[in-house]
Amino acid sequence: MRPRLDRDARREAILDVASDVFLEEGYANASMSTIAARVGGSKGTLYNYFKNKEELFAAYVVRHCAWQRDAMFEIESELGDIREALIKTGRIYLSIVLSDFSMANFRVIVAEAQRTPEIGHAFYEAGPRSGSKRLGAVLQKAVDGGQLKIDDPVHAARQFIGLCQNHMLKARLCNAMAEPTPEEIDREVLPAVDMFLAAYGTRR
Q: Over the stretch 163-189, which tens digit does the pLDDT of each residue have?
């Protein structure tokens, strides 16, 4: 399902179509005319919501990041056992980030970041950096509950994400493997959780 972050249905419909066009044609080849035609209106309609293609693309980037972030952190309300929470987080994270849909979006965004660094910065702030902060908040709860011993939860969150994704993210970026199966994800996540808890867990 597509993310719905704005109550303005027309704006969301434009972003839905724009996302498809960016994925199909890339940012450079995508045009406001093409997007307007698919939406079923004029370019003037688009400009009522976005002053140019750059602003439309930035909104697409932020919305995609927010969708990923919200999908990941359903564990925040009830932490429970930290090992189970980390396993669940790792599984969800890899299933989202390494999916065909996310990889296609990631390639489009990174390609444009070379030409427009502000886009890369917006993606990093709304995606990886924000996600690390939210996972860090989860880890802080585990610290407060006596399940972990960590001085810098956000730094530890980045380490955990790195442990989970290192091998398969590179393979996926190089198109050297297909979207991973649940079994392949577990082969990465379970050892990553064990290593993380060996370093930061209070139960030795």
A: 999 889 999 999 999 999 999 999 999
Token couple for 85 = 């929470």
Q: Which two tokens stand for residue 193?
A: 């959780």
Entry pTM: 0.81
Separation CA 97–CA 94 (nearest Å): 5
Beta bridge partners of 202: none
Measured in degrees and rounded to the nearest 5, phi and psi for residue 201 equal -70, 155
- At which residue do the structure tokens 């919501």 appear? 49
Torsion of Cα atoms, 154 then 155 then 161 then 166, to 10° = 160
The phi, psi pair for 171, rounded to 5°, reads -65, -40
Helix (H, G, I), strand (E, B), or coil: what is residue 202?
coil
Q: What is the 3-state secondary structure (H, E, C) of 113-135?
A: HHHCHHHHHHHHHHHHHHHHHHH
